[in-house]
Structure formats: structure tokens, C-alpha cells
Automatic annotation (TrEMBL):
This is ABC transporter permease. Pfam families: ABC_trans_CmpB (PF06541). It comes from Parablautia intestinalis. The chain crosses the membrane at residues 6-23, 44-63, 69-89, 110-131, 137-159. Keywords: Membrane, Transmembrane, Transmembrane helix. The keyword Transmembrane helix applies. The keyword RNA-binding does not apply.
């Protein structure tokens, strides 16, 4: 069974990529009450569905006459695919496109028992019913047509995937940049706290015992710079020249990081915005605040339209 040519295998892969996109986009759009172009790529294809479908066909090939072994093969194969894909994507892009952390019996949020069980049943459904109908339709199409369509779609997907991959890498760099800007602001605030303590200022230095949001951090820094400015203006001799120069240097560093943050938030890339719009459940443990900030930026721009 499954004696297909290369063009036919590719055609099946693209078909299930498209079918997965239709299914997920419809589900998420209904849930969100607005159209959501779901997925990693800009076009109407979800490679994870195509990969999953082809994997189900391949792992079940030796067990076509045994439904139980087909189920087990589907559970194992799909779970491995989901785990490897999830780890690879998070390692590359620093975000998760799905997360099972809120599910019981999950492994690092990449896979969980309930999805593994579901994959087995989907493999039976796929190999026993769905693919047989798809196979008949494809076999009814002239082979030359299948080959031409496959070539055209391949060229399109290569271009789309390349642009989407670059956008995902750019988005990763933006998240890293936003986090570095915050870390630099934290260092600036800590140095300001030291200067405040040394100067015995009237306002207390605030210890950062907890992780604060970037907006709170910036407000706190601005407040301290304003207090220093008023204090120096009222009594210039209170601070030695070295302290005044260091405050000016900290202010300059802060302005640079503030501008960096604004630049990162602009998200000029269309593909970058599309990935955020198409993956509302995108999650990053390390860059959670930066990612949420980018999501708010995209939503604000959409609402203004």
C-alpha cells in the first residue's frame, strides 16, 4: 500500500497542509470572532499538519491489518514528531507555537498524554477513512496535472517558508533586544539607587525584590532622574562633579535603551506581524513580557484601522 510517486507524496503533503490550515483557521477564527490566518507561514498551509499526516501514513504501513498496532504506532510517531518540532522551534525562535503546560501529564509543555491518546485515534481515522477518499480523488487527476500543480505549489511554499523563517528569526531578535533593553534599565536603576543612598536623598531607594514590568521600571527611573534634576538645580554644590557626570552618563544610556525599545516595538515587517496575529496563543517563558508587549502593539494597530 502507499506506492506513490514523489509528486504524489508531495501532493498529499501539501493537501494536508492546506486542510490543516482550513481546520485551524476556522476553529480559531470562530473562537476569536474574527478571521485569523493561522500558522507559521503567511500562505494557507500548516506544515505541521502535512508532516503529521505523512508520518501517520508511514508509521502505520506495516500494521494495516492490525488496528491496535496502528493506534500504538500513531501515538508514538505523532508524539515524537510533536516533541521534536516543539523543542526545535522553541530553541530556534525562543517562543512556543503551542503549549500543554496547563494539561495533566505533560512533558515540558511540548507534549501531553491527552494529545498522545488523540493522535492514535486520528491515525486510525486518517489511514482507515480520510486518506482513502483523498487517494481516490488524486488518482482521478491526470498525473501530469498533479506534477505541474506540485511544482507550482513547491515554488510558492519555498518562498513563503523562507520569508516566514526569516520573520521568525527577526522576531526572536526583537524579543532578545527588548529583554536586553530592560536588563540595561534595571542596571541603570540599581546604580541610581546607590547614588541615592550615598547622597542620603529624601526619597528612599527602592529595592527590586520582585520582577517589575518594563513600564513600571521606566516610570521609576524617570522619577529618580527628575528628583536628581530638581535636587541638583536647587543645590548644585550638594553633588560632586563626578556624581553629576555619572548621572548624565546614566541618563544618556537610559535614553539610548528607551529608543531601542521603541524601535523594536515598531515591527515594520509584515511577516512578523502576521505571525503574531496568526498565533495568538504563542508563548515564551523567558520573554513573556516582551512577547505580550509585541502582541499589544499589533492589536493596537489593528484596532486603529
Amino acid at each position: 500500500m502507499y506506492q506513490y510517486s514523489v509528486s504524489e507524496w508531495l501532493f498529499f503533503f501539501y493537501f494536508y497542509c492546506f486542510f490543516g490550515w482550513v481546520f485551524e483557521s476556522t476553529f480559531v477564527s470562530v473562537k476569536s470572532r474574527r478571521f485569523v490566518n493561522r500558522g507559521f507561514m503567511r500562505g494557507p498551509f500548516l506544515p505541521i499538519y502535512g508532516s503529521g499526516a505523512i508520518m501517520m501514513l508511514l508509521v502505520s504501513m506495516p500494521f494495516q491489518d492490525n488496528i491496535f498496532l496502528t493506534y500504538i504506532a500513531g501515538c508514538i510517531g505523532a508524539t515524537i514528531l510533536e516533541l521534536v518540532t516543539g523543542i526545535a522551534m522553541e530553541s530556534l525562535f525562543k517562543v512556543r507555537y503551542w503549549d500543554y503546560s496547563n494539561q495533566r501529564f505533560n512533558y515540558k509543555g511540548h507534549i501531553c498524554l491527552s494529545s498522545t491518546i488523540a493522535w492514535g485515534f486520528l491515525t486510525i481515522l486518517m489511514t482507515g477513512f480520510v486518506h482513502r477518499g483523498v487517494e481516490k480523488v488524486v488518482f482521478a487527476i491526470p498525473s501530469i496535472v498533479v506534477s505541474v500543480v506540485t511544482i507550482i505549489v513547491t515554488e510558492y511554499i519555498v518562498v513563503d517558508f523562507t520569508l516566514s523563517f526569516k520573520a521568525a528569526m527577526d522576531l526572536r531578535d526583537i524579543l532578545i533586544g527588548l529583554e536586553k533593553a530592560k536588563e540595561e534599565m534595571v542596571r541603570i536603576q540599581k546604580r541610581l539607587d546607590v547614588l541615592i543612598a550615598v547622597a542620603n536623598d529624601d526619597f528612599a531607594a527602592r529595592k527590586q525584590e520582585r520582577s517589575v514590568r518594563i513600564d513600571e521600571l521606566m516610570d521609576n527611573i524617570e522619577e529618580k532622574f527628575s528628583a536628581f534634576k530638581e535636587r541638583i538645580k536647587g543645590n548644585p554644590s550638594e553633588f560632586v562633579e563626578e556624581v553629576r557626570e555619572e548621572i548624565m552618563e546614566l541618563r544618556s544610556r537610559y535614553s539610548v535603551e528607551k529608543e531601542h525599545r521603541l524601535q523594536f516595538r515598531r515591527l515594520r515587517g509584515h511577516y512578523q506581524r502576521s505571525q503574531l496575529k496568526g498565533n495568538p496563543s504563542m508563548y515564551s517563558k523567558r520573554f513573556e513580557e516582551a512577547l505580550e508587549e509585541l502582541k499589544r502593539t499589533v492589536n493596537e494597530k489593528r484596532n486603529k484601522r
